[in-house]
Write a structure and sequence with these properties.
This protein has 2 domains: 1-62, Homeodomain-like (Arc Repressor Mutant, subunit A), CATH 1.10.10.60; 71-230, Homeodomain-like (Arc Repressor Mutant, subunit A). Strand 1 (120-121) and strand 2 (126-127) form a beta hairpin. It has helices at 18-31, 39-43, 49-60, 71-84, 88-93, 100-117, 148-155, 170-177, 202-211, and strands at 120-121, 126-127, 191-195, 214-217, 226-230. Strands 4-3-5 form a 3-stranded mixed sheet, covered by helices on one side. The termini are far apart. It is mainly α. It is elongated and about 55 Å long. The longest helix is centred in the middle third of the chain and has 18 residues, at 100-117. It binds a DNA duplex through helix 3 and helix 6.
Length: 231
DNA sequence: AACAAGTTCAACCGCATAACA
DNA sequence: GTGTTATGCGGTTGAACTTGT
């Protein structure tokens, strides 16, 4: 039997030192990413592979964009979250230079609070105070305001994602509700074009294709899941 | 200046699943 | 087909930092 990934004894934990960072950077520059299990030993690090991977992906990678999120990034996160739920890696994948951890943290510390303040449930993007009569479906024009927050404010119509944070009940659940529920209707002007990506994301893509008003193209970009958002 | 409360964010943990034997 | 390991993901934690009193 092979040893488990994280052998608890003899491995460092907690914050990384500059020396550790440098060792990791040097090693990956020379050997590239991959084989995280054997990397710590080869790089002379007393860390588990998991920890090295996380440090590299979330902090040391050269293409990481640090600093505040721009307004358009924030809008995109909201839109994607409405559609995808807490699938941070998928959301981050649409924000160049941003990591899933960063997006998740930003959501929890900034956006979530903002939405709550506005009376919007961040879990399902619905208003907490629901009008007595539901709006008819598919009648609202796309938001004309410059960002999603404005759209929320002006139209008070929130995205479709269901209680479970997932995507599985986005469009279908609305059909099920059939106007009986007071749930508001999607109006984020999400026009999706999805290309079948790498095998790993096929399940996701199928779900998306099934649950959203989307166009599935036959184009495949190797190892690059493609989800185009037009706002 | 000192402390408390609130916020941010890097890092850890556990689970799911892909990959492999 | 089954069992085991490696990897990736999302939830959570806690130290560091900021703000208010």
């Amino acid at each position: 039997m092979r040893k488990p990934c994280c052998d608890k004894e003899g491995t460092n934990k907690g914050a990384w030192s500059k020396q550790e960072d440098q060792k990791l950077i040097d090693y990956i520059r020379t050997h590239g990413e991959g084989c995280w299990r054997s990397l710590p030993k080869a790089a002379g690090l007393h860390r588990c592979g998991k920890s090295c991977r996380l440090r590299w992906i979330n902090y040391l990678r050269p293409d990481i964009k640090r600093g505040n999120f721009a307004q358009d990034e924030e809008d995109l996160i909201i839109k994607l979250h409405a559609l995808l739920g807490n699938r941070w890696s998928l959301i981050a994948g649409r924000l160049p230079g941003r990591t899933d951890n960063e997006v998740k943290n930003y959501w929890n510390s900034h956006i979530k609070r903002k939405l709550i303040k506005m009376g919007i449930d961040p879990n399902n993007h619905k208003l907490n105070h629901i009008p007595l009569r539901p709006q008819p479906q598919h009648v609202s024009p796309p938001p004309t305001s410059k960002n999603t927050m404005d759209a929320y404010k002006q139209q008070k119509v929130i995205a479709p994602s269901g209680e479970n944070n997932g995507i599985s009940d986005s469009a279908s659940s609305l059909e099920e509700e059939d106007g009986k529920s007071a749930a508001l209707l999607p109006n984020l002007n999400l026009d999706l074009t999805i290309a079948i990506p790498s095998p790993r994301s096929n399940k996701f893509t199928e779900e998306m294709a099934h649950n959203t008003e989307s166009t599935v193209t036959g184009e495949v970009l190797k190892n690059e899941p493609t989800l185009l958002l037009f706002t």
